[in-house]
Every structure is written in structure tokens, then in C-alpha cells.
């Protein structure tokens, strides 16, 4: 009886061992590739990271960073090309510029004298108009002369100084009359003829433009002088 019980117990132990062995086999069949599967994500990550790194390395350089060293600065180039002296004036143009500068200086100086000495209010106003308008014209003329390297007269010619000295000796109505006759009418007739010639025949565009733009003012001066009572 005891032997039978022992045999049953042994059979039970054998059965349990068999079950455990089968379970172990089933679990072992899933595990061989487990470590490889666990390594796969990290391998994939590494591959992806490498691809990202390669993409970054092969991406084009930022254009804005490259432009200063490769693209020319057109603004500076244009400014550089504009430096230096311009073409010299033709003899006729240079003569006109020089004579116009001397005439403009004369108009300003004698206009200042008349603005102080004239007795007729209309003559005083006319004299001040000459000072203002010819001062502005002289500034433009100096710019043109500088651009062409032309040296303008530093002082009035001797004949113009003599005219101012002669007029300065007069006074009263006699001064007013002589000023209008000599400066307002005679000189402006001469100036208008010279400026009309330059406006049509000057070779330099800036000289021609200056003469053309000054003509209306000179004609205005002549018309104003001819209307003044002191003229007669």
C-alpha cells in the first residue's frame, strides 16, 4: 500500500516537472530574438540621427551670410565712379562763366551801395533785389566752376571797380538816376545778350542750363529798372 502511494507521488512529481519543462521551452522560444529586438530602436535612432546630421551638413550656406563677400556694393561703386574732376570747359564756355562771375560780383557790390545811398524807395528796393538774386546766381555759378576746375575771379576787374568809385561820388536823385541808367538798364541789356547766346550755344549742359535758368531773372530786372521814375 505504501509502495503504491510512493509511486503515485513520484508520477505526480514527474508530471509537474514535465509541465515546467514545457513552459520553459515555450518561454525560451520567444527570448532568443528579444535582445536583438531591444537593440533595434537604438540602432534606428542612431541611423536617424546620422541622417539628420548629414542633412544639416549638406544644407546650403545662409545666403545673407555669404552676400557681403560675394555681392558687389553697387551704392559705393556708384559713388566712387562719380568722384574726380569733370571734363574741362570749352574756351567759349569758360569765358562766359568767368565773365558772368565778374558781372555777378559787380551787381552785388553796386547793389549794396545803392541800397544804402539811393533816396528813392523804389530804387532802394530794386538795388536789394539785385543783391539777393545775383548772390543766389553767383552761388550756382561757383558750383559749376568748381565742378570743371575753373578758377573764378577773386576780385572785380579794374573797369568795374572804377564804375563803382564813380557812382559812389554821386548823391541824391543824381545817384539814383545814374545807378538805374548804368546798372539797371545798360548792364542788364548786355547781360541778357550774353546769357541768351550761352543758352543756345554753350557746349557744357550745366553751363547751358545755368544761362537758360538765369534769363527770366535778368529780364525781370530790366523790366523793373525801365519802370522806375529815376530812369528819366
UniProtKB/TrEMBL annotation:
Domain DUF4142: from-to ranges: 92-228
Gene3D superfamilies: 1.20.1260.10
Keywords, in A-Z order: Signal
InterPro entries: DUF4142 (IPR025419), Ferritin-like (IPR012347)
Superkingdom per UniProt: Bacteria
Tagged with keyword Isomerase: no
Annotated signal peptide: 1-28
Region Disordered: start-end pairs: 30-90
Bias (Low complexity) ranges: 32-72
Biased segments, Polar residues type: 77-90
The protein's name in its UniProt record: DUF4142 domain-containing protein
Organism, scientific name: Piscinibacter terrae
Amino acid at each position: 500500500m505504501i509502495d503504491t502511494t510512493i509511486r503515485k507521488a513520484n508520477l505526480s512529481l514527474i508530471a509537474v516537472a514535465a509541465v515546467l519543462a514545457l513552459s520553459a521551452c515555450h518561454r525560451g522560444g520567444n527570448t532568443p530574438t528579444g535582445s536583438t529586438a531591444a537593440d533595434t530602436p537604438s540602432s534606428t535612432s542612431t541611423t536617424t540621427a546620422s541622417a539628420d546630421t548629414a542633412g544639416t551638413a549638406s544644407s546650403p550656406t545662409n545666403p545673407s551670410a555669404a552676400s557681403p563677400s560675394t555681392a558687389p556694393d553697387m551704392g559705393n561703386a556708384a559713388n566712387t565712379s562719380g568722384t574726380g574732376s569733370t571734363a574741362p570747359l570749352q574756351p567759349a564756355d569758360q569765358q562766359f562763366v568767368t565773365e558772368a562771375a565778374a558781372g555777378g560780383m559787380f551787381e552785388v557790390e553796386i547793389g549794396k551801395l545803392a541800397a544804402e545811398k539811393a533816396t528813392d524807395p523804389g530804387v532802394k528796393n530794386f538795388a536789394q533785389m539785385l543783391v539777393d538774386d545775383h548772390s543766389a546766381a553767383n552761388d550756382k555759378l561757383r558750383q559749376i566752376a568748381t565742378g570743371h576746375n575753373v578758377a573764378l575771379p577773386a576780385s572785380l576787374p579794374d573797369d568795374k571797380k572804377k564804375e563803382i568809385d564813380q557812382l559812389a561820388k554821386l548823391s541824391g536823385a543824381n545817384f539814383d538816376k545814374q545807378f538805374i541808367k548804368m546798372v539797371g538798364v545798360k548792364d542788364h541789356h548786355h547781360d541778357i545778350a550774353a546769357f541768351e547766346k550761352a543758352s543756345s550755344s554753350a557746349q557744357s549742359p550745366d553751363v547751358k542750363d545755368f544761362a537758360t535758368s538765369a534769363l527770366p531773372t535778368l529780364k525781370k530786372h530790366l523790366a523793373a529798372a525801365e519802370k522806375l521814375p529815376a530812369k528819366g
